[in-house]
Amino acid sequence: MSQENCIFCKIAAGEIPSKKVHEDDEFVAFHDINPAAPVHVLVIPRKHIETLSSCTEADAPLLGRMLSLTARLAGELGVAYTGGDTGFRTVINTGPGGGQEVYHIHAHILAGERPWRRMG
Ligand code: AMP
Ligand code: ZN
Fold it and tell me: What stretch of residues is annotated with the motif Histidine triad motif (predicted)?
């Protein structure tokens, strides 16, 4: 999908409403519209990158910051791993084979009481 028609580019630009939990110069995070778990947040770069398979070594710093932001947001959402039964799942679906539906790279943060709905 091109950048012009990309729903996540539009969310990042504020052209489509979302329930944002974080916004900075490089990333936006918002609640998934169709949550598969009690906590289901998506973390996206503002830069339109279609898939994890589109990434090169040059994207490593961005991917690193995205993953570290994911952990920080999990903490802010109250679902970090702090021992016992706590913790969260991070998922990046890639291509039809990986169940990707929106072709703007995003990391899912999933957490909370089971059962969770199966994704993809
Ligand atoms: P994926 O299958 O990894 O591409 O996941 C795409 C996710 O985006 C799904 O979990 C959708 O529920 C979610 N989604 C699609 N449109 C929106 C939207 N407008 N706002 C928030 N989440 C969305
Ligand atoms: Zn996009």
Answer: 104-108
- Each residue's pLDDT, cut to its tens digit, for the chain (120 residues) gives 678 899 999 999 999 999 999 999 999 999 999 999 999 999 999 999 999 999 999 999 999 999 999 999 999 999 999 999 999 999 999 999 999 999 999 999 999 999 999 987
63 lines ligand 1 (CB under 6 A): no
Ligand 1 in reach of 13 Cβ (< 6 A): no
For residue 109, the cross-strand partners are 41, 90
Maximal CA-CA distance, the chain? 45
User: Which residue of 34, 51, 90, 91 sits with most ligand 1 atoms within 8 Å of its CB, as the best mutation to test the pocket?
Assistant: 34
pTM over 0.85: yes
Q: Is the dihedral of CA 93, 97, 99, 102 positive or negative?
A: positive
**Which domains can be identified in the chain, with CATH numbers?**
3-111 (3.30.428.10)
User: How many Å apart are CA 20 and CA 12, to the nearest integer?
Assistant: 9
